[in-house]
Amino acid sequence: MMVNLHTVTFNKSFTQLIMRILKIFSFCLLCSTIGCYYDVEEELYPTTGCSTDDMSYQNDILPLIDTNCYQCHDAANNFGGITLEGYDALKTYADNGQLVGVISHAAGFSPMPQGDPKLLDCEIEKIEAWISQGTLNN
Ligand code: HEC
Question: Distance from the CA of 125 to the center of ligand 1, in angstroms?
Answer without folding.
Answer: 19
